[in-house]
Amino acid sequence: MKMDDVPLKVKLILYIGFSVLLVMAATTAIIISTSTAQHEDLAYKKSIEKASNYANQFNSDMQSNMAIARTIENTLTVYNSSDRDEVNDILREVLIANPNLIGTYTGFEPNAFDGKDAEYAGTEGYDSTGRLVPYWNKIGGTMFVEPLIDYESSDYYQLPKQLEQEVLTEPYLYQGELIVSYVSPIIREEEFVGIGGVDVSLNYIDEIISNVTAFEKGYAFTVSNTGILLSHPVHKEWIGMKTLNDFNDTEIAIMAEDILVGQGGNIETVDTTTGEDVIIFYEPVRTGNYSFILVIPKEDMLADVMALRNELILISSLALIFMAGAAYLVAISITRPINEIVSNFEDISDSALKGDLNRRAETDVGVDFRKIPSGLNDILGSLQTYSDDLEKANKELKSLDQMKDVFLSNVSHELRTPLTSIKGYTQNVYDESLGDINGPQKSSLGAVLRNADRLRRLVNSLLYISQAQAEIIEYKFKECHIAKIISNTIMDTIMLVEANELHIEKNIPSDLPTIEADEAHLVDMLNNIVDNAIKFTPPGGVITLGASDEENDLHLTVSDTGIGIPKELIPNLFKKFYQIDSSIRRKYGGTGLGLYICKKIVDAHSGEIWIESEPHKGTTVHIRLPKVRDGGEVGGNEE
């Protein structure tokens, strides 16, 4: 039997099974001889690293908080506007921008801020001294301001004043919250004038540290440099109330002395909570004046499972080496047919991209891969059939499309002549050039004229579409007055406006410059837009045509007080034959060509058109047209 006829599954079993046997035999001896002392050293290092990482993490948090206090101090050091409300706004915004803070504040020496303490004494937000001492905080969940208290005796004010340097206070309880204060002195001209600071609740430390685990049963907590417990996963009642010295343990007392001077280390003792022999690792948080403590049961830390896990790491490494060899053997057996298939596929894809679907894949490959080229050949055969059918259908569609364009063009041309005669004779009768007519007759003839105009615009739209598709539209660009174009539009649509009980007006400046454009097409464009505004504006509404001069362009607008358009539908409005929905088409009529034609005309003028609308509040169509084309210059003002 040839190797190509051997299933891939069998090959994998032979190669990988043999390799695994070798790996297991070679590594069993290594597991037995592994040293327990190595695992113990690794466990110690890992625990110390864990404690150090958490200490560094909280140290970074503390530095960030002190930086915020320093920012408040720097801001108020150079602040000279003497606006107490503005200072309050600064403190409030800092508190809002930093959700980790529980309070922001400043405190100035008597009359050191603006010399007006007496004016504020006893007023809302001030104490009896009137000093600027606002304390913005969200203790209890709601943000509010109150005056600082006990600043004449408390460390948060007196220490920065005495030392003239930044101070981080010991944790203390305030209104039920265990907090710590970051304070920076405000020094002006080498004289202490006040403080800027922030308060941080230490509750978040307890929330984070209480979830820290190590090995199977290890846990963590934090203490201040003086040994006050700041967190504990079980005994929440100890937080802020108990110190390390309260445990009456010699080793813990040694740890408390190290923590007091900011030193890390580890001790072995008995856990007062569980009664187990434990190893306690402690690392200082330099900026925060407190330490992170990790408590790990000794038996847990040095369990055989730890040794086995480390041994398996080595076993896995060796296994990878052997498995790599096995994988290499497997790769050799499957690379050759895959490469042949890929190369064959590349040749076929190149031919297909060039339109040749007659090429077929080679099927003389390994038994495991033969279905791939066979399936590809089936797909290629189907694609060839579909390609032939599509080519035939495409030719038929092109022929039908050409017939449709010719038909539309011929019908449009044929309709224009009788429409012109109908409108002309009707206009003569309407103007009573052929004799007097009564009121009802005149009203009926007005309706005929309006509908003749609408039919004329429809015919023009169809003719424009057929000419656009045949690419035979001609534009005659010359110097034009926009005011004249707007006036012509109003004249063309005034009868329809009045028939719908609307009011139309224009709003353009008298010194509007001229523009290089095709006047007839711009009139058609504005007629289409105004016709839309008339259809979608209820009786009593107003249509406004406006224009303004911009640096290189003229900006035209057509606004109405109509029914408006939902925002999500606006991008579709310039598509050919698009209407919002069937109910709109039935109620207001139209072909969906007007805005499509407007977009084509604006594009021919190298301009842009867009729509702003809000349902029930009206619509504004914006058209921006360049004043000059191809670098030419056109000047002059509208007379």
UniProtKB/TrEMBL annotation:
Give the record's keywords alphabetically: Cell membrane, Coiled coil, Kinase, Membrane, Phosphoprotein, Transferase, Transmembrane, Transmembrane helix, Two-component regulatory system
The yes or no answer to whether the keyword Membrane is present is yes
Membrane topology term reads:
Multi-pass membrane protein
Q: Which InterPro entries match?
A: dCache_1 (IPR033479), HATPase_C_sf (IPR036890), HATPase_dom (IPR003594), His_kinase_dom (IPR005467), HisK_dim/P_dom (IPR003661), HisK_dim/P_sf (IPR036097), Sensor_HK_Regulatory (IPR050736), Sig_transdc_His_kin-like_C (IPR004358)
Q: Which residues form the Histidine kinase domain?
A: 410-629
TM annotation in the entry: 12-32, 312-334
- Name recorded for this polypeptide: histidine kinase
Q: What species is given as this protein's source?
A: Methanococcoides alaskense
